[in-house]
Structure formats: structure tokens, C-alpha cells
């Protein structure tokens, strides 16, 4: 790997002074000092998103990262049994778990308290305390 | 000077010189094994037998390249003599990025390419752009590689999300692009969680569950019919037994009965993962993200929304040229289902959905770029014109280069 060598290929202005060349056009003038090393840490996505949003002054209808999300569906959400994946005809009012038949309901009644939230988390419907 | 095409996907890197037929597919991740605590960069994971409970460190967050320390390690490995044997100073680079990438990320990409590696030149564009350039072959058949259709909708079903990008005369219609946050990763995770509730605890086994998804999952043409079948008499037609790996005789496991050596490999101690409605209920999240509690429309509605956002006169032509690319386009049945669902929304006329058959759909961007470089069409020389050399980068600085690539979409 020649990563270190790559930095040296861009000739800085120092060599120009020594050589005494008068024509500036013949000298490479990189926009950045080749010896400069930034010590910044990479930002995570959340920081990037926030910074870019603050920095941008696009019109509202201009397509950007923030407004290309597909619009929500107008169709009603389908209901499936949280335990078996079969079509759910019933919802347990106590735990909010959707279930397919009385047989599954027997199983719901034996669930440990708290574990119903894990089932609900599967379809992003659990109660999150913040 | 040789040209390296590097399709930097969030799951695999597709990399290879433009003069070869097939690119290499390198996992774009750093994996650490659970038991032996060893670290494997990129493709080195193939050398490991300890694939249970792998801990992954990905350079990507939600499809955007942010963790450069991880990415540099993977790129170093990919460019090394063992894999590609690339000398950056003597190589032109074609690099892909997501649609609507952030300025800051583009800037660091250019910085890495020119300052860290010192590539001779760079051409950076979205992967859908390259897929669109090479769409002629898939849509029109053999011998028409150079004729990209005038109107085209590229649906990129990737690892971290799905992008729908309409193209008109080779240029992206930016105002009509739609994104959906369902991709291969969500499907794998959803399968993993579902299975963990119903059969075995697979929460740590992302690697295995990805293999299970690739081998067992499919997109159903009629969800309710198949759901009925799955718990009725015809269950046997849909149910499969997946034999989980023991890491001694098989690395990723296999479907019982599909492999010739099945009975030989079936030992008393093997663990079997029965799959039935999970096989098609999981990919259904592509069409109904509301099933997993997401407030977004399905892929078919996203395609339709994108087409409707285009100029009215272009809409019929757009609907007739829908190209599905990306790793999750490998799901069997996705093309037919998408065609049927979009047709149901479309007012009239024909809807045509194409998935590349001559190569894997995840290679579409790579193949498109390669075809353009090798064709004699005017578009090819156009690619050369968009290239930015290292000298130019050092002269103009990153902002002008970003503005330059902004016009190439």
C-alpha cells in the first residue's frame, strides 16, 4: 500500500522558492498544504444530518434527503397474529396482542408479565417509556 | 491506464477492473468472532469457521458512509495484492454513492480517494445512475447494450433501503425520487426476530439468518392464499426445514432435501429450523411496511408515486420501463408481484418490470459502468469527460469537485 507516498507527490511551494523559478504557472499550487493533517474525528450520521439541515437554505419543494421519503400508505394496516403470523381476528384488550384463535389466547394468558411488550416490539407497537 | 469500478454498497463492495468479466464481491464490514475474539476484515471472513454470533462493524449507517476508520480498513484489504492488486496512482476510479448523498460525506469521499490513496482520477455517481446507463441490455435484449431507454425507473432494492429513481434521457428526475427504508437488512432482522420468538433464539446469528433469507424467502403472488395454505392442509408445499450449521460440516447450513448430501449431513445432533409462513410473510414487509410498524407506503406505491411525480407525458413510458436492481431483487417472485401491484394502481396501459437475468441484480451498477467504458457510443466518451484528475482536485479544491459531480446524475 502506497498511502504515505501519495502525500509527497503534491509539490508544495517550498521547492519553488529554492529552485528560483519565476513562472508561477509551472508550479503546482495545491489548495491545501500537503503536510497538513486534520485531527478531527469522523461525525456520525445523526450529527451530519443535523448540520446539513441547519446549513441548507433550499426552497421547500427542492428535493433533498429530507423530503424524498415515500408518502405513507393510504391502505389500512393489515392485522396478523403476533404469535403465529396468521390473520388476526381478535385483539386482547389487556395486552394489545393480536391473536388468531382461542387456542392462541390460552397461550397469551400464560405469558410472563412484560414479555407481551417484546411481542409488540416486533411490529413497533410496544410502549416505550422515555 | 486501467480503470477500477468500485460499487461501494453497504453490504458488499463490488469491485473489479473494467477489463474483467465479473467483479469480486467483498463484504463491506469488519467482523469479530464471538468465541475466539478474532477480527476479520472484508473477505477474510471466508477463512473463519467460527461464524456463530459474529459481531459486525459496518462503515455504513442507514446506507450512508460515515465510519471511515472501518471503511479504510476494508478498502486497504480490497486494494491489497491479495485481492485486487491495485496501484492507486496508476488507476482511474469509478465510485458509487447513494442518491442524495450528503455534502459532507461526498467531501470526505473525495478527500479519501485523492489525499489518502492518491488515485489518478475519480468519477463519482449514484449507483442508480450506472445501473441506468447499462439498462439497455436488460430491457431490450442482446445487442442493444448501448441503447438506454429514454424513460426509465430504476428501483434499487439495496441492503439498507430502497430507492426509486426515474431517469429521463439519462438524467435523473430529482424531484421524483422516492426512498423507502425497507431493504435487505430490515428483512434479515425481521426474519431473525420472528424466528427467535417462534423456534430458536437466533438474535445473535445475523450471518446465518442472512443465508436463511437468501435461500428460503420468496415474494408471494397472493399473500392471503399462501397464508391459508401455510396453516391448512397444503402446508407441506410451503414448509421447509432449514438445517442449521454445526460449523464443522457446513458453514451456513442448508435446506433439507435441496442438497445432494443432505442425508449424509443429517446427524442426530443437527438442529432444524422449520420455516413456513415466515418464508413469504417477511419479504411482504417490502410491500406493506405497515406490518412492521413503519409509516411508509410499499415499494409498489413508491414506484407509482415516483412515476406520478414525473411529467405527465412521460408517465406511460416510465411505467413500461421499470428496472429492479440491488441485492434484494434476488428474491424470487419480486418482479411479477411488483408488476401486478403497479398495474393495479396504473390507470391504463402496460406496466413492464424487468430484473436482470444475465447477471445478478446486485451487479447491475458495476455492469452498467463497465458496459459504458467498453462501448463505442458517444455516452462512453461522455463518461471520460466527467472524470476529475488528481491534479484538478488539488487545483480546484473539494467544493468545486462536488459541484461538478452534482451535475452528473
Automatic annotation (TrEMBL), chain A:
Residues 79-108 form the Vps72/YL1 C-terminal domain. The keyword Transcription regulation applies. It is found in: Nucleus. Its main location: nucleus. GO terms for cellular component: Ino80 complex. GO terms for biological process: chromatin remodeling. Keywords: Nucleus, Transcription, Transcription regulation. Pfam families: YL1_C. It comes from the Eukaryota. InterPro entries: INO80C/Ies6 (IPR029525), Vps72/YL1_C (IPR013272). This is Chromatin-remodeling complex subunit ies6. It comes from Coemansia asiatica. The lineage of its organism: Eukaryota, Fungi, Fungi incertae sedis, Zoopagomycota, Kickxellomycotina. The gene is IES6.
TrEMBL record, chain B:
It comes from the Eukaryota. Keywords: Cytoplasm. This is Actin-like protein ARP6. PANTHER family: ACTIN. It comes from Coemansia asiatica. Its main location: cytoplasm. One of its GO terms (cellular component) is nucleus. The gene is ACTR6. SMART domains: ACTIN (SM00268). The keyword Phosphoprotein does not apply. Pfam families: Actin. Belongs to the actin family. ARP6 subfamily. It is found in: Cytoplasm. The keyword Secreted does not apply. Component of the SWR1 chromatin remodeling complex. Component of the SWR1 complex which mediates the ATP-dependent exchange of histone H2A for the H2A variant HZT1 leading to transcriptional regulation of selected genes by chromatin remodeling. Involved in chromosome stability. InterPro entries: Actin (IPR004000), ATPase_NBD (IPR043129).
Amino acid at each position: 500500500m502506497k498511502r504515505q507516498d501519495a502525500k509527497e507527490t503534491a509539490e508544495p511551494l517550498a521547492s519553488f522558492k529554492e529552485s528560483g523559478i519565476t513562472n508561477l504557472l509551472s508550479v503546482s499550487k495545491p489548495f491545501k498544504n500537503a503536510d497538513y493533517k486534520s485531527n478531527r474525528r469522523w461525525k456520525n450520521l445523526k450529527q451530519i444530518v443535523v448540520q446539513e439541515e441547519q446549513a441548507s437554505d433550499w426552497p421547500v419543494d427542492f428535493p433533498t434527503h429530507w423530503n424524498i421519503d415515500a408518502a405513507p400508505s393510504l391502505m389500512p394496516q393489515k392485522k396478523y397474529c403476533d404469535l403465529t403470523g396468521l390473520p388476526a381476528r381478535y385483539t386482547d384488550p389487556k395486552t394489545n396482542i393480536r391473536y388468531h384463535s382461542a387456542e392462541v389466547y390460552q397461550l397469551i394468558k400464560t405469558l410472563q408479565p412484560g414479555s407481551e411488550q417484546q411481542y409488540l416490539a416486533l411490529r413497533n407497537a410496544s410502549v416505550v417509556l422515555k | 491506464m486501467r480503470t477500477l469500478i468500485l460499487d461501494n454498497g453497504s453490504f458488499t463492495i463490488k469491485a473489479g477492473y473494467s477489463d474483467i468479466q465479473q467483479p469480486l464481491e467483498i463484504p463491506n464490514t469488519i467482523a469479530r468472532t464471538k468465541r475466539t475474539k478474532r477480527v476479520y476484515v472484508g473477505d477474510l471472513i471466508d477463512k473463519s469457521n467460527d461464524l456463530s454470533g459474529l459481531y459486525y462493524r459496518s462503515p455504513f449507517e442507514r446506507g450512508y458512509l460515515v465510519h471511515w476508520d472501518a471503511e479504510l480498513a476494508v478498502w486497504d484489504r480490497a486494494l491489497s495484492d491479495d485481492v485486487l492488486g491495485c496501484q492507486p496512482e496508476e488507476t482511474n476510479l469509478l465510485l458509487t454513492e447513494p442518491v442524495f448523498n450528503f455534502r459532507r460525506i461526498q467531501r470526505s469521499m473525495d478527500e479519501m480517494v485523492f489525499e489518502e490513496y492518491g488515485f489518478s482520477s475519480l468519477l463519482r455517481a449514484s449507483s442508480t445512475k450506472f445501473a441506468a446507463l447499462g439498462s439497455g441490455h436488460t430491457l431490450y435484449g442482446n445487442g442493444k447494450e448501448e441503447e438506454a431507454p429514454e424513460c426509465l425507473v430504476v428501483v434499487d432494492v439495496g441492503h439498507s433501503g430502497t430507492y426509486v429513481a426515474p431517469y429521463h434521457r439519462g438524467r435523473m428526475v430529482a424531484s421524483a425520487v422516492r426512498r423507502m427504508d425497507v431493504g435487505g437488512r430490515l428483512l434479515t432482522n425481521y426474519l431473525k426476530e420472528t424466528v427467535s420468538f417462534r423456534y430458536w433464539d437466533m438474535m445473535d446469528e445475523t450471518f446465518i439468518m442472512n443465508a436463511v433469507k437468501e435461500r428460503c424467502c420468496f415474494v408471494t403472488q397472493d399473500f392471503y392464499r399462501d397464508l391459508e395454505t401455510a396453516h391448512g392442509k397444503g402446508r407441506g408445499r410451503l414448509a421447509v426445514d432449514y438445517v442449521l450449521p454445526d460449523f464443522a460440516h457446513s458453514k451456513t447450513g442448508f435446506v433439507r432435501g435441496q442438497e445432494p448430501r443432505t442425508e449424509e449431513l443429517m446427524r442426530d445432533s443437527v438442529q432444524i429450523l422449520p420455516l413456513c409462513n415466515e418464508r413469504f410473510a417477511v419479504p411482504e414487509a417490502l410491500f406493506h411496511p405497515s406490518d412492521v410498524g413503519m409509516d411508509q407506503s410499499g415499494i409498489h406505491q413508491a414506484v407509482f408515486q415516483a412515476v406520478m411525480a414525473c411529467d405527465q407525458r412521460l408517465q406511460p413510458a416510465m411505467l413500461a420501463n421499470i428496472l429492479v436492481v440491488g441485492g434484494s431483487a434476488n428474491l424470487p417472485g419480486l418482479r411479477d408481484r411488483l408488476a401486478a401491484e403497479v398495474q393495479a394502481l396504473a390507470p391504463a396501459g402496460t406496466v413492464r418490470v424487468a430484473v436482470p437475468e444475465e447477471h445478478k441484480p446486485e451487479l447491475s451498477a458495476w455492469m452498467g459502468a463497465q458496459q459504458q467504458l467498453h462501448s463505442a457510443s458517444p455516452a462512453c466518451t461522455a463518461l471520460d469527460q466527467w472524470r476529475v484528475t488528481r491534479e484538478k482536485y488539488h487545483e480546484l479544491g473539494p467544493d468545486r469537485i462536488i459541484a461538478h459531480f452534482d451535475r452528473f446524475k
